[in-house]
Design a protein that fits this description.
Structural class: alpha/beta
Distance between the termini: 49 Å
Number of domains: 2
Helix content: 25-40%
Order of helices and strands: EHEEHEHEEEEHHEEEHHH
Largest sheet: 9 strands, mixed
Radius of gyration: 19 Å
CATH architecture of the largest domain: Alpha-Beta Complex
CATH topology of the largest domain: Spore Coat Polysaccharide Biosynthesis Protein SpsA, Chain A
Strand content: 15-25%
């Protein structure tokens, strides 16, 4: 194994047939692909189709939804045990460009103390990241997890993904922890990946294009709970991050009130998320919305 053999960790959840195809196509770029099936109960596809030693794919059946963070940790434990130094984390729906590993790896090889390098995520052809560079790459505080190249040296030094978060802000918390321990988080325009963002659609308000995410009440609960919990968890209060994130929080609430459906359920979910964050009621929520 060379120093730059790259493994992939794919988190699957009740995958569709198109997701199955994407996972098969993506696996050709990696030395080995670990598919962590996080579905509740049995999947709607035959895991044996993917669990193929000949093409170095391995399926790990969790048989319940243990959360994104726990599933990532399970997959990365296998990657580390098999001796890899680099891993790409993927959603089941992601479909990579055929030169993805080559391009993202060319940046990683030239950087010391690299924690993560992330592609730009596109939604309907537009970059989701507001700070996306026009060319090259930039240092940033945090990135979305899908399509990221992780240094496993940094992972072993900084620790696992925070399983108490379950879903949402898992990537943000990990990146802020990397930053606090001197590892770089990079965002590159040389690599792009398609990404879904809630049930969003555009609204035209006085000539301005606005796009609420329209997350479900349950997702809105997790987003709120985990962001508030994270503010208190930061060892050194990251003022720029907290200010930007609070601004986004206010914006999201306004969008719910102005544009989204199920307003009462979502506002109730936000209130419960704040309450549970303050009482440190974390992990998978048993609340019904």
């Amino acid at each position: 194994m060379s120093d730059f053999d790259v493994a992939a960790v794919v988190i699957a959840y009740n995958p569709s047939s198109s997701s199955l195809i994407n996972m098969v196509l993506n696996s050709s770029q990696f030395s080995k692909t670990y598919i962590v099936d996080n579905s509740d109960g049995l999947t709607n596809w035959d895991a044996a189709e993917l669990n193929n030693p000949a093409v170095r794919r391995h399926v790990i059946l969790m048989q319940k939804n243990v959360g994104v963070a726990a599933a990532l940790n399970v997959g990365l434990e296998h990657v580390v045990a098999d001796g890899y130094n680099w891993a790409v984390t993927l959603d089941q729906d992601s479909l990579l460009d055929t030169n993805f590993v080559h391009y993202i790896g060319s940046v990683a090889k030239n950087e010391d103390r690299l924690g993560i390098i992330s592609p730009i995520h596109l939604h309907n052809g537009l970059a989701i990241e507001r700070n996306a560079p026009k060319e090259g790459y930039i240092l940033t505080s945090h990135v979305m997890m899908s399509g990221n190249l992780l240094s496993l040296k940094a992972y072993k030094e900084c620790g696992k993904f925070s399983e108490e978060l379950f879903i949402d802000y898992v990537d943000t918390e990990y990146c802020l922890r990397l930053n606090s321990q001197g590892f770089k988080v990079l965002l590159t325009s040389d690599v792009q990946i398609a990404h879904e963002l809630g049930q969003s659609k555009w609204f035209d308000v006085m000539g301005m294009k606005l796009k609420p995410t329209n997350h479900s009440p349950l997702r809105r609960y997790y987003i709120t709970r985990n962001r508030i919990y994270l503010y208190g968890k930061l060892k050194k209060l990251n003022i720029p991050f907290v200010i930007k994130d609070l601004f986004m929080f206010v914006k999201e609430v306004l969008f719910i009130l102005l544009f989204e459906q199920d307003k009462i359920k979502k506002i109730r979910a936000i209130i419960l998320g704040i309450f549970d964050a303050n009482s440190k009621t974390m992990g998978k929520s048993m609340r019904k919305f």
